[in-house]
Amino acid sequence: MRASLIQIAVEPDESVDSRRRRVASMVREQQGAELVILPELWPVGAFAYQQFEPEAESPTGPTYEAMAKAASDAGVWLHAGSVVEKAADGTLYNTALVISPAGELAATYRKIHRFGFDKGEAVMMGAGEDLVTVPLPDLTIGLATCYDLRFPELFRGLVDGGAQALVVPAGWPARRREHWTLLARARAVENQAYVLACGTAGTHADVEQAGHSIVVDPWGEVLAEAGAGEEVITVDLDPAKVASTREVFPALKDRRLGLPTPR
Predict the structure, then answer these.
(1) Is residue 206 a part of any domain in this protein?
(2) Exposure check for the chain: N or C terminus, fewer CB within 10 A?
């Protein structure tokens, strides 16, 4: 399976509508790929908190509409990053969208771990509760978002749900870039799965972004890594490598904690 990660530059002088059109065009250019991945909250910027409420939308709102058409035109599975979702009760969520090559909404994932401690996303948004895996034709992906990367138990749950690749869109700050690459490799090694971590470039509300989107294989080897600016990286994923890694070094079989208790 060929996957492309589009590391989008999010800058304050570009309108949300203009960015949607530009990103849709970039998705259409990835016609050689089977899976395309976008970053977290790219329509507004992960740290542009003042934009969350006015730009909130439903999972089938304007971002979905633009990305669904682009995915259909390109004939790709599209992980469209995440949007600020406004639920029926008014609660905001950081919600990822997965769109099929037919332009249909295949899955959504509400971010479980909200960043900010006592401000920003942590107090403005609700927390998701559900682990989400999506079976693609050749590969099952597990969904996580940005700050989730720091919580390994989530990824164990995704692997238990059949995930062979872990997709992590993010708006990760440049000042913690070393954590980003370290944690992406750690999640790949401990779960013996591909990690596809797609970040943003540019500056969100004066917060410089790390960029450096990265793809790591099940043995922990970096297959591709972007620089700091807007960039597309493309890799070929081999589902058989997940199975062979787990067979040659069957560490997952030795787990003793976090497993269901026998009755």
Answers:
(1) yes
(2) C
